[in-house]
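Morning. Coffee machine broken again, so started the prediction first thing and wrote up yesterday's gels while waiting. Chain of 221 residues, entered below exactly as on the submission form.
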Amino acid sequence: MSRAVAQSFLDQVLAANVALPRHGLVVGTSGNASARDPDTGLVAIKPSGVPYASMTADDLVVLDLDGTVVDGRLSPSADTATHLYLYRERADIGAVIHTHSTHALAWAANHEPIPVYFTSIADTFGGPVPCGGYATIGGEQIGAEILRVGGRSPAVLLANHGVFCLAADLSRTLHAAVTVEEVAHAALLARMLGHPREIPAEEVARQHAFHAEHYGQGDDR
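Came back before lunch.
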């Protein structure tokens, strides 16, 4: 049976979802990845409560931006309202990933952004990884809080909850999700060892711009 979006698009969304446990960013059935199809504007997202190991592209749920299911036999993620809110509010967002990765969650529990202790934070996030306040799960409040505090950072911590990553495509969004957990872990170790120093703001800006302009092979940056 044909789907409302191309099979290749569904395969990409599936691959992003199953990458989450592979990178140690989720356990059990927690977390989710979604993407906006550039051809139709529809969104494909992980179904609620389905184990990653057994998930197939046929399990993904396809919705319009108002939340109407247009394709799929399962219920979508409980975080669907947050994903759709972000897509409606920001036309530049092509993918959203939500995790409860361990070390990032530790910072979120303290309601504390991750400081720019490393050049990798400057490169990817352009400043401290912001932390928003607590917001109720299941509605648009989380999405509004992400946009309130996030600026143009591709990752935002949500107090007592976890991490939301958002970027132009699945590759960039997954990179942000992996990187935020890596730097959260390293920053925690740095704090345990002593008194880490933050990179000055002007050097953060310079480093972020340099990375954007010179890293990678042109179109893949």
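The chain has a mean pLDDT of 95. Going to sketch it on the whiteboard this afternoon.
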